[in-house]
User: What shape does this take?
Amino acid sequence: MIIYLYKKTHRITGLMYLGKTTSKDPYAYSGSGKYWKAHLNKHGFDYDTEILKECSTPDEVKHWGEYYSELWDVVTSDEWANLKAESGDGGDPGPIGRKRYQKHRLEENIPMKKILTKVRDKLEPNDHLSILLKKWD
Assistant: This one.
């Protein structure tokens, strides 16, 4: 079984996504990342796919996935939709990835961000909700 390690690039926005798949057609496979899928749903399924590696074992995917994740800084760079380093196992993105996803969700949903900002501005500075909303900034 071939495991494809790929880079997707949205043709309109330029946002990129590093992922892996065992699909027979990795070009048709759109990817499974939470932020990447939300981006595709908003901006359209118009992306290019570049196959980086054809791997034969999960360990090989992990090695190359972590290599490219670090090389391109896919978790913290705003040019990438990855919420965690690609290690071939999917799963929970951890606290950094969750915070990043929340930030992008707010940026993608401008009306909600405006509402939350107005609510926060009317709260007392030490109010629990005010403190939580400041963490999203």
Notes: The mean pLDDT is 81. The longest strand covers residues 47-55. The chain has two domains: 1-91, 92-137. Residues 58-72 form the longest helix (15 residues).
